[in-house]
Input
Amino acid sequence: MFGIPGPDGSFPHHPSFAAAAGTDDAHVEAVVVGKSLAMIGWEMITDEALFKQAKSQWENYAAWDSAVTQLSSNILKAVDDLDFLDLGPEKLSFSKEGILYPEFPNTQGIA
Output
């Protein structure tokens, strides 16, 4: 991923972004990134130690990511199984951070 210089407020698939993507500045950025990726690819296929290190790091990350995904799934299932609380949408509120907290009677909220 790389930045394409554009007007404030532009985002992918917006006409202002499409116009910015067609500029010489955007082309220069794309060429720099493309060359960088090609050089990294070349290093990976010509330096066996670097390739093994990258592969090991990827395998470790993949195992960690799988564990986090499983944990998240278990947490969501556990929360979903809390039917006894009977918390409907009218009993939930948003904090400044956008996190849902249940509003329990006679409390000042959850810190």
